[in-house]
Design brief:
The protein folds into two domains: 36 residues; 92 residues, Sufe protein. Chain: A. Helices cover 40% and strands 20% of the residues. It is α+β, with helices and mostly antiparallel strands and 159 residues long. The chain starts with a helix and ends with a helix. The chain is elongated, with a radius of gyration of 23 Å. A three-stranded antiparallel sheet has the order 1-2-3.
Length: 159
Amino acid sequence: MSPQSKSKIIGLVVVALLAVGGTGAVILLGQKNGNPDVVKTGTENSNTNTATDAPKSTSTATYKDGTYSATGNYISPNGDEKVGVTVTLKNSIIETVSIQTFGSNDEAKQYQASFKSGINDVVVGKNVNDVSVSRVASSSLTSTGFNRALEVIKSDAKA
């Protein structure tokens, strides 16, 4: 084998190793930074209106069928806010959700109204164990109140 051929083979091996190593680094960095979705696994992924982008819950908790309500609080730049949440559960699946807004100022009212308009598309039809909302219809803070209220609801509805 000529020295030129050996150089070409070594060059190809180096490029292949860099490509594999780079992909591994992206995967590891994504997981280290709390973003396991860097590498998609065939599930739909979106940065907005997400409730269940995380892997499915392994919780086996079950809940009594019924309609449950709770109020969750959160802190906004303007201070304390709260949001009312009512869900109907059947076989641990959220069948309906309604939101009661309590915005203390125009900005809070606007974000809560946006949240209210988008939450059905995010949680209805999902197992309550798998729901954890982060951002809905441009509202990210209201979701904290929603998640807190949902935890109270889950506690109240536990079978």
